[in-house]
């Protein structure tokens, strides 16, 4: 039975946490497979990637979870592969984030795909900035790798929380008039 009504904050974060746990397998196997030049690990990581979106879609109660998962995987490939040619970590962050934009259940009256996409773009730029600055501060390279394992899905949840806060403030303002 699919849930009706808005997605609760608790359920959103449980869904994002569960998907982030699954994402660790995909992220690290792809990362290690590329760095160690082990194609088997790379392919395993890519094979696990759809499960990240599947867990997120079903856990959040997306009304069209299988279709959203397929679209998210297509968008992951469309976004992650070209950006991974520039930098693998940035490509993975952008790809996982883009897929999460499509698979996390949203309330169209409150949550904006645009806001979610801006959050994912911001996370990708953040990772790129860390990688570019690692020449000045060497610890930033490993920090970028570790951040990339957590940030992509979390920024989508943060964007939704901010959208809900803005919608509540707008309702309060409308009631106060």
Question: What this model shows, in words?
Answer:
The protein is an all-alpha fold. The protein has one domain (9-171). The protein is built from seven helices and no strands. The chain has helices at residues 9-35, 39-60, 65-86, 88-103, 113-133, 140-148, 151-176. Helix 1 (9-35) runs antiparallel to helix 2 (39-60), helix 1 (9-35) packs antiparallel against helix 4 (88-103) and helix 5 (113-133) runs antiparallel to helix 6 (140-148). The radius of gyration is 17 Å and the shape is globular. The protein starts with 8 loop residues before the first helix and ends with a helix. The model has no long low-confidence stretch (mean pLDDT 91).
The structure class reads mainly alpha
- The count of DSSP E runs of length 2 or more, i.e. the number of strands, is 0
The number of helical segments is 7
Q: For the report, how would you describe the main beta sheet?
A: none
From the N-terminal CA to the C-terminal CA, the straight-line distance is: 40 Å
Binned, the helix content reads over 70%
Any idea how many domains? 1
